[in-house]
Amino acid sequence: VQLVESGGGLAQTGGSLRLSCAASGRTVRSYAIGWFRQAPGKEREFVATSTRSGDTYYADSVKGRFTISRDNSRDNAKNTAYLQMDSLKPEDTAAYYCAAIYSSHIATIQLSSKQDYWGQGTLVTVSS
């Protein structure tokens, strides 16, 4: 599975950004695809995830502001995940990473240490 993120950039407080994660691979639709972020000097943390069945889970810090979705193309080997980020806050500033895990266990899919594949990351900066 390969993951390529795009869509990061600079936003003002209260603004919006949408991140994309282009996932490819023969079995990519069997994976949960999620987003994690890492701010300078902090550990990587869970943001949101979407299971292969379409269930979604969010960190409390982004619930109600961020929305994760998946766009299943006709090509079974491709899948795009989006992270719509609204009402952005300066504390949302971080490098955002797309990740994929071959699991549907609710607790496991939210652990960065358990992810099977990672994208290269995209930087989001929110100015106050």
SSE blueprint:
Layout: E1 2-6, E2 9-12, E3 17-24, E4 32-38, E5 45-50, E6 56-58, E7 66-72, E8 78-85, E9 94-101, E10 117-118, E11 122-127
Parallel strand pairs: 2-11
Antiparallel strand pairs: 1-3, 3-8, 4-5, 4-9, 5-6, 7-8, 9-10, 9-11
Percent helix among the residues?
under 10%
From the helix content, strand content and strand pairing, which structural class follows? mainly beta
Mean pLDDT: 95
Along the chain, the helix and strand elements come as EEEEEEEEEEE
CA-to-CA gap between the ends? Answer: 37 Å
Beta-strand fraction estimate = over 45%
Q: Helix segment count?
A: 0
Bulk shape: globular
Poorly predicted tracts of residues: none
Give the beta-strand count. 11
Instruction: Specify the biggest β-sheet.
Output: 7 strands, mixed
Rg of Cα set: 14 Å
